[in-house]
Each structure stands twice: as C-alpha cells, then as structure tokens.
Design brief:
The protein is mainly α. It is built from two helices and no strands.
C-alpha cells in the first residue's frame, strides 16, 4: 500500500496539471482577443483611409466610412475591456498554478527528506548489526 504522502503527492500533481491547463486555456482566450483587437484596428485604419479618400472625391460614401469607423472604435473599446478582464483571469490562473506547483514541490521535498532519513536509519541499523556480529565473534574466539 502506498504511503499517504505519495497519495497527497499524486493529488497535488493532478491539481497542478488542472491549474496548468486552466492557465493555458486563459492564455489562448487572451491571444484570440488580442488577435481580434489587432484585426479591428486594421479595419479601423482602412476605414479612416477610405474616409479621407472619399472626402476628397465629394462622394456620399464618406458618411458610411465615418459610421463604420465609429462602430469599429466602439468594438475596439469592448474588446479592450474584455482583454483587460482576460488579463486579470490570466493573472489569477497563473497565481493559482504557481501556488499548486509550490504545494507539489513541498510535498515532493518532504518525501525526499523522509526517504533520505529512512535510508540513513537503515544504513545505521545495518552497520550496528554488522558491528554486533563482529563484536560477538571476537568474544567467542580467543586470541592466540
């Protein structure tokens, strides 16, 4: 049967893995939002260029370009606020992952220290048994 510390280590390992996956998921969401924000910014720049070109042509399309630019500006604002919220979620997920990782390492260190102490105690017992055996043989055997 496994030692309780090994079960705790396994549990901490699973919790660390879940936290890591959660962090990766949050980072992917953030990357998607940043990609969308970049795309919106490119669209807005295109709309601004189109508006200036249409103004120079005295075309009625410039009004549509202004409306499109305003709509894209609002969309960028919403994406920026969503990105800020995702950044907070990423920071929380990262902190949770690091905490779980620290807990795992602590249990791992406790197990290593306990194993080292048991190995030392075992070597001492073996040496004591060896000393006792040789000590017992010396008393039985007279010196010549």
């Amino acid at each position: 049967m496994k030692h309780p510390l090994h079960r705790i280590l396994r549990l901490r390992s699973l919790l660390e893995e879940i936290s890591r996956l959660n962090l990766e998921f949050r980072l992917q969401e953030l990357a998607q939002l940043e990609s969308s924000a970049l795309h919106i910014e490119q669209e807005r720049r295109t709309a601004v260029r189109s508006r200036y070109e249409l103004i120079g042509q005295k075309n009625s399309g410039w009004q549509e370009a202004i409306l499109l630019e305003g709509w894209l500006e609002k969309e960028r604002y919403f994406l920026d606020s969503a990105r800020d919220q995702k950044m907070l979620a990423v920071d929380e997920a990262k902190a949770e992952y690091l905490e779980r990782r620290k807990e795992y390492r602590q249990i791992e260190n406790v197990i290593e220290v306990k194993a080292a102490a048991q190995a030392i105690a075992s070597r001492r017992r073996e040496q004591q048994e060896l000393d006792d055996w040789f000590g017992g043989n010396k008393e039985k055997k007279p010196r010549t």
